[in-house]
Every structure is written in C-alpha cells, then in structure tokens.
Design a protein that fits this description.
The protein is 79% helix and 0% strand. By secondary structure, the chain is mostly helical.
Length: 330
C-alpha cells in the first residue's frame, strides 16, 4: 500500500481512537452526574453508561493497536500483512511504541474498572480511577503529537493533552446524551416524579459541563495555535498555510457547534426543565399531540443530535490538523 493509503488508515485509526475516548468520557460524566440518584431512569442511564465506557475503551484500544501496526508498515516499507515483526520492535524500542504501551496500560485500567461494577454503583474511587486513566491515555497520545517535540514532560504536551481531553469530554457528553441519555418524554406518558427530577439534574449538568469544557478548549487551543505559529507576528502566515486553512475549518465547525449548544441552553432547555419539574405528565397535551412540553423535548434532542454530528466533523478536522505539519516544521 502506498503512503497515501497508509496516511488515510492512520487518520482513520486516530478518528476512532478519539471517538472511543469521547464515548468513555461522556459515559463517565453521565454516571458522575447521577451519582446518588435512584430513579428507574437514572438506573437505566447508569447501566448504559457502564456499557458505553467499556465500549469506548475497547474502541480506543483497537484503534491504538491499528495505529502502531500501520506505523510499522510505513516505517518498514512493507505491506500491512508483513508489518508484525516491525510492530513488535517498535513497541519495545521506539518512543511511539513506549507511548503506545503506556496508553494501552491506562486503557486496561479504565476497562477493568468498568468491568468490576464500581462505575455502575457510582463509587467515588472507581469514578476517579477511570477518569485518571483516561486522562493518562490522552497524555500518551499527546506525547507522540507535534507537542511531543518539546519532551514528554513538557508544558506543550500537558496543554495538548488537556485540549484533547476537554474536546473529548465535550463531544462525549453530547454524543452519549444524544445516543442513550435523553430526558424522559414528558408528554404522552406520566413520568415518575423521581425520573423527572433526575432528568432535570442531568440536563443542567450536561449544559454546565459542556460550557466549562468549551472554556478550557478555547484557552488550550489558543496556546496550541500560538505555539504552532511561533509568535503572534507569525499568526497571519499560519492562517494562510494549508495547516491554517484546516484550522479555520475546524474553528468554523466549533463555532457552529457552540451556536447549537447555546440555542439549546438558552432557548430550549428552560422550557424542558420547566416541564420536567412539573408535577405530572400532560394528558391533554398528549391527546392533542402538540403539547409545549413534548415540543421542547423533541427540539432539545434534535439540536443535541445535530450538535453531535457537527462535533464529529470537528473530530475529523482535528485529526487531519494533527497529522499536518505546521508552517516551518520539518
């Protein structure tokens, strides 16, 4: 396979690894938000969160293994099928391989925590250990990025790792919410009061977490852009390069996702929260098929799913950006 084909495969494994990390982080956040909740809806979401954490860890591990294999094929100049010996050598004798082994160990810890059931029961120690393991995995990936040129224990590696972690958290909370943690419909059936209270608590935590993650993404992203440019004076040259154009596409997609999230937070969520906190379902609205509560719920989920789609495109743009050389690199 040619270099172009291997580059596509390497980028694909990076996308899958980032998606797996995001899914695991989103699942962990959802479980944390509902710690101590005992409604039927909260128990259902907690069970799904444990499963999603395991699935995310597995995706990330498989993608990381695929990356090492494809990197070995590229380094040895052989076919993918013949890259096994080089992959073993890389795993033990290269910086990329050592980072891969460390990341795999971190994922193994997170996966073990998911399997033990501590996540499902909401134990603080299990939640903290899983979170630290996922953070360590993000740092191992940062160490083999452009930021790793400054050294494994450098500020650029830490900032880039934090950026990856926060970006994964933002995508993860939106993605897991869109997939399996939607608040119970409040029209068409009389949801239990406990279900509605826990769903309202979850929706508020989702919005707060996404907002805090976005603030951190902006700060770390500015640092990464400044470092890629070399200085403020070089920013115009950065933006006129291929690297800069990819960065602008990524920023435009991020801006669109921010608008969607803001619309949901300030226009749709207040009506949804009011409905969730009401005393009971709206039988009259259900019969009419157009109750404001049901409309707010549908609108909230539509925007949330659209935001998840846009953030997935952001993930792809980030991978392409990460595999592209900044101006002056080389």
């Amino acid at each position: 396979m040619g270099e172009g084909g291997l580059l596509v495969l390497l980028r694909a494994t990076a996308v899958v690894a980032n998606a797996g990390l995001a899914l695991a982080l989103g699942a962990l956040a959802s479980r944390l938000w509902l710690r101590g909740a005992d409604s039927a809806w909260a128990r259902q979401v907690s069970a799904r969160a444990r499963q999603a954490l395991g699935a995310g860890v597995l995706l990330a591990a498989l993608a990381s293994g695929g990356r090492l294999w494809f990197e070995a094929a590229a380094m040895a100049g052989t076919s993918i099928a013949q890259a096994g010996p080089m992959a073993l050598t890389m795993a033990w004798q290269t910086h990329l391989g050592q980072a891969w082994l460390a990341g795999l160990a971190a994922l193994a810890v997170a996966g073990a925590v998911a399997c033990t059931g501590g996540i499902g029961r909401g134990r603080p120690g299990a939640l903290a250990l899983a979170g630290l393991s996922l953070a360590a995995y993000a740092c191992t990936r940062s160490a083999v990025s452009h930021a790793g040129d400054a050294g494994d224990l450098s500020l650029p590696v830490a900032m880039n790792g934090l950026h990856q972690l926060l970006a994964g958290l933002w995508l993860g909370v939106v993605l897991t919410a869109a997939l399996f943690a939607a608040p119970p419909a409040v029209s068409g059936r009389a949801a239990a009061a406990a279900d509605r209270a826990d769903a309202a608590r979850w929706a508020l935590a989702l919005s707060t977490t996404a907002t805090l993650a976005l603030a951190g993404i902006a700060l770390t992203g500015l640092y990464n852009a400044w470092r890629a440019a070399g200085s403020v004076a070089q920013l115009p040259a950065l933006l006129h390069s291929d690297y800069g154009r990819i960065l602008l596409v990524k920023l435009a997609l991020v801006g669109l996702a921010v608008l969607m999230g803001g619309f949901n937070r300030w226009r749709v969520m207040p009506r949804l929260l009011q409905a969730l906190r009401s005393a009971g379902g709206s039988a009259e609205g259900a019969a009419a098929g157009g109750a404001p509560e049901a409309a707010a719920h549908r609108h909230f989920m539509r925007v949330l799913r659209a935001e998840a789609g846009v953030l997935t495109l952001v993930l792809v743009a980030a991978v392409v950006l990460g595999s592209s050389a900044p101006p002056g690199a080389g």
